Amino acid sequence: MTATTSKSQRAYDHLHERIERGVYGPGYRLVLDAIARDLDMSVVPVREALRRLEAEGVVTFERNVGARVTEIDPDDLHETTETLAMVEGAAIGLAVPSLTADDVAEARRLNEQMRESLAAFDPVRLTRLNEAFHRTLTDPCPNEQLKGLVDDGWRRLARLRQSTFGFVPGRAHDSVEEHERILRLLEAGARAHDVELAVRDHRLASLHAYLDRAGDDAHATESH
């Protein structure tokens, strides 16, 4: 790895982490020179990092403006999350007969790690634990095409928004409790349909929390 590549990776990690945490929110202008100064490097690796983020859909370049954190399209976010709620719920519903006690125990372990992380409140860690929790329950699904749709939904969602937990801190606690409800259904041997509906409702609750907060922020901006 060359020195330039190493610096480019460091710039990428720095920017990606701040965007994911919500430090740089949607529409935030990413000034090349300022970032380079903060990281004590030339603009070349920073530009490479920004182009990489652009390819991932996280950053947008505008004429006469430069790089900005990509704005969120509420309609696209709504449709993507709604679709993921449907396919993920179905995938976990189909997985119910194949889920082992070890699978459920692993999901519970991950949810307890989320619960323990609430006090320190690290939205990036919470987001990663949250995805791991969901993946633990979808992985045993026997329908590979359905699992592919779930994967596609996660990828699209990652491009559309940063951590919901960073944007709506109170959502993390609710999410942990909703996970607990899903786990209790699984441990009680609930019908697959009931588990599917609980997963779907959980996913849509995150969407509504995100959009409600975004709407409140937009209203506050207009008021000023």
Which features would summarize this protein structure in a list?
2 domains, Arc Repressor Mutant, subunit A, 10 helices, 3-stranded antiparallel beta sheet, single chain, Four Helix Bundle (Hemerythrin (Met), subunit A), mainly alpha, about 220 residues, about 75% helix
Question: Could you describe the 3D structure shown?
Answer:
- With 224 residues, this protein is mainly alpha-helical.
- It folds into two domains: 3-69, Winged helix-like DNA-binding domain superfamily/Winged helix DNA-binding domain (Arc Repressor Mutant, subunit A); 74-223, GntR ligand-binding domain-like (Four Helix Bundle (Hemerythrin (Met), subunit A), Up-down Bundle).
- It has helices at 3-21, 32-39, 43-55, 74-95, 101-120, 123-138, 144-160, 164-167, 171-187, 192-223; strands at residues 29-30, 59-62, 66-69.
- A three-stranded antiparallel sheet has the order 1-3-2.
- The longest helix is centred in the last third of the chain and has 32 residues, at 192-223.
- The mean pLDDT is 87.
Short summary:
The protein folds into two domains: 3-69, Winged helix-like DNA-binding domain superfamily/Winged helix DNA-binding domain (Arc Repressor Mutant, subunit A, Orthogonal Bundle); 74-223, GntR ligand-binding domain-like (Four Helix Bundle (Hemerythrin (Met), subunit A), Up-down Bundle), CATH 1.20.120.530.
